[in-house]
Inverse folding.
């Protein structure tokens, strides 16, 4: 009874992540809690320690080194015997069993474990979670701070190149013919440089229009708000899938049901929910990108690479790292986060600057396939926007007259 039990140790973690009350913060905390509990489970299985509170720095270092030689599928296949004979048998099995755990995975687990032990450490100051167990049961030190960790591997940042971006559109139009939601989703993903959850849950009520420009308001991790602009031609395509739902991609269930019905795929049809859930759309699109990337010379891909690619194009369009990061609202400063509020006009200007950087870096074919309209009217509107920002009112009047003439000619 004097020792901190495993259940109490996990209860401390749950209390910590249960302190969030904002809905989005609660969702993020729940995901982090799942990762924390997975790391704790891996630590117990690999070290075979009955009570995690008795872990020493030697146990923690042993965990890192023993995990390095375990197969990547060790937990899924219940290969938790760390004896040398079993490891040799597994490594000689071939296939996925010959791949060992990534050092980055082990470092990720170790980081979660260090934080978990700190929450149960009475000498950790504000990081200690109190009130769950009597104070005499809390730990006196954190073993994860008393030895040198292994290093992770540097990863090459994966981006989509121009050939891949066109190939993906072609593949979606062929493999999922008639399912326009899929192609529109990846187009919006590129221009928005947004995360999967942001694109999937995009709403028409989030749209912000300025003259002929179409922007959408989006709120990402840690409640960071941004706007992103999409080309007018892409906006017209999105209008074509608009339905009664406020969600931009709310027509996804109907389109998917219709797709399977035409092909008489009964089993697949039964798995489709008729109500729209953003998380389901995001998961479905994630699987499609993975499916498309199988066998790709550049390696496997996933949805988040669209965010990386969009920001890379933005950086290429203007070689100023700090300006691109600020306009993309990636790391807002203390002033922006705590003391000042960005109003619509500033969010609009940021959105336009990032949009132009991406457009300037996209090859012609890619820009057109992803919804950019290079018409004369679009070009004049861009010039008008730049003139307006420079307060060049004479140029604004001239360009406005030219645009009006084009509109009259077009009826």
């Amino acid at each position: 009874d004097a020792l901190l039990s495993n259940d109490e140790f996990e209860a401390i973690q749950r209390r910590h992540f249960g302190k969030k009350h904002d809905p989005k913060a609660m969702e993020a905390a729940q995901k982090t809690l799942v990762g924390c509990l997975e790391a704790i489970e891996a630590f117990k299985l690999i070290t075979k320690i009955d009570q995690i509170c008795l872990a020493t720095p030697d146990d923690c270092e042993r965990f890192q080194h023993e995990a390095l030689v375990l197969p990547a599928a060790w937990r899924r296949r219940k290969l938790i015997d760390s004896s040398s004979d079993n490891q040799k048998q597994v490594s000689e099995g071939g296939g996925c069993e010959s791949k060992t755990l990534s050092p980055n995975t082990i470092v990720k687990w170790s980081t979660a474990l260090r934080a978990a032990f700190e929450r149960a450490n009475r000498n950790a100051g504000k990081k200690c979670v109190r009130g769950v167990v009597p104070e005499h049961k809390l730990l006196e030190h954190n073993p994860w701070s008393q030895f040198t960790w292994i290093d992770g591997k540097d990863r090459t940042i994966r981006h989509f190149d121009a050939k891949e971006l066109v190939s993906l559109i072609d593949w979606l139009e062929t493999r999922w013919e008639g399912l326009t939601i899929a192609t529109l989703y990846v187009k919006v993903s590129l221009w928005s440089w947004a995360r999967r959850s942001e694109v999937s849950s995009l709403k028409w009520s989030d749209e912000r229009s300025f003259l002929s420009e179409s922007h959408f308001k989006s709120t990402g991790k840690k409640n960071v708000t941004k706007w992103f602009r999409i080309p007018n031609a892409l906006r017209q395509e999105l209008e074509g899938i608009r339905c009664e739902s406020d969600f931009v991609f709310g027509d996804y269930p109907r389109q998917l049901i219709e797709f399977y019905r035409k092909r008489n795929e009964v089993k697949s049809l039964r798995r489709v929910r008729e109500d729209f859930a953003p998380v389901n759309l995001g998961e479905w699109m994630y699987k499609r990108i993975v499916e498309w990337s199988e066998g790709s010379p550049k390696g496997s891909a996933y949805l988040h690479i669209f965010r990386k690619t969009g920001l890379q194009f933005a950086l290429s369009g203007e070689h100023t790292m700090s300006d691109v990061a600020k306009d993309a609202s990636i790391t807002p400063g203390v002033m922006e986060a705590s003391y000042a509020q960005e109003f619509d006009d500033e969010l609009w200007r940021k959105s336009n600057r990032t949009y132009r950087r991406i457009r300037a870096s996209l090859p012609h074919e890619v820009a057109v396939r992803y919804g950019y309209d290079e018409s004369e009217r679009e070009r004049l509107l861009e010039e008008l926007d730049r003139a307006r920002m420079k307060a060049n009112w004479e140029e604004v009047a001239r360009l406005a007259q030219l645009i009006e003439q084009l509109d009259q000619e077009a009826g």
